[in-house]
Amino acid sequence: MILIPIPSSDFDPSEASLPWKLLSESNFKFQFATPDGKKAKADERMLNGKGLGILKSGFMARRDARDAYLEMENSKEFQNPIPYSKIREKEFQAILLPGGHAQGMKEYLESKILQNVVVDFFHSNKPVAAICHGVLLASRSIDPKTNKSVLYEKNTTALLQKQELFAYYTTRLWLGNYYKTYPLTVQAEVTSFLKSKEQFKTGGSLSVRDSLENLDVGFTVVDGNYVSARWPGDVYQFTNDFKSIL
After folding, report:
1. Which pTM was predicted?
2. Who has the most CB within 10 Å: 44, 80, 204, 215?
C-alpha cells in the first residue's frame, strides 16, 4: 500500500490524482492521510482556472488531471483518510509526496509529524516519490542520526526558481502571494539542505507537458529509492519512474 499525505486544502490536483490513477490501474493500493483525518480538497483554482486570466490554459490542471481528480475524489480511499498522527511507516510500502503552492499547503510542508514519517521511510530504504513542493517537505525532514536532511547526499529536483518566480510576478497584481508560498523559493531552500548545489538538477524544456505517449518530455531525478520531479508537466514520467522502484 502506498501512502499519500496531503493538507486539508490547496494541494495540487494533478500531482496527486494522476499518480493515483495510473498506479491504481496497475493494482497498487493507496491510503491518504490528512492533518485531522477529514476528507481534503485540492486547490480549486487549479481545477477551475478562476483568476488566472489569459494564463488560465497554461497554469491550471489539464483535462486529464481534472478527470483523474474527480475520480480520485469519489474513491473510497480518498474519502476515508487517516490523520497524520496515525501514520505508521511499517504499514506502507512507499510514500508519495505531492506538491501545491497555495497557502493551505503550509500545514503539510511544516508538519513535524510528516517530517518524521519521511525520515522513517528513508531509514527503511522504502521508495519515496516527491514532486514540486513535495520535495520541500522531504528536504525539511531532518535525520536525528546525522542532524542533516534526508536529502543531504541525494540528487534531486523540485519546482524551479524560474518557474516559481514567473508564475508569481505575472499574477501578483491580482493574486498576491498565491504562487509564492514562502519568501525563499523552493529551489533555493531545497538546495540549502544539500551537501552540494550541484546535486540539484534543473532538467530541460518546460514548454510542453508530458503524457503517456510522450514520456520523454518529462524530467525526473532517480537516486536509489528516491524519485523527484519539478511540476505537473513531469507527472507521467514521475509516475513511471516511481513505479519502476516500487
Report:
1. 0.97
2. 215
* CB atoms inside a 10 Å sphere around CB 197: 10
On the question of pLDDT at 57 being above 90, the answer is no
Helix H or strand E segment including 79: helix 76-79
With cell 493551505, the residue in question is 104
The residues with which 3 forms a beta bridge, in sequence order, are 31, 95
Domain count, the chain: 1
What is the per-residue pLDDT for 56? Answer: 84
pLDDT tens-place string over residues 63-90: 999 999 999 999 999 999 999 999 999 9
- By DSSP bridging, strand 2-5 and strand 226-229 are unpaired
The answer to whether 30 and 2 have CB atoms below 8 angstroms apart is yes
User: Tell me, what CATH number does 239's domain have?
Assistant: 3.40.50.880
C-alpha cell at 13: 490536483
Whole-number pLDDT of residue 55: 79
Taking the C-alpha atoms of residue 149 and residue 43, their distance in angstroms, rounded to an integer, is 28
**Domain of residue 235, residue span:** 2-245
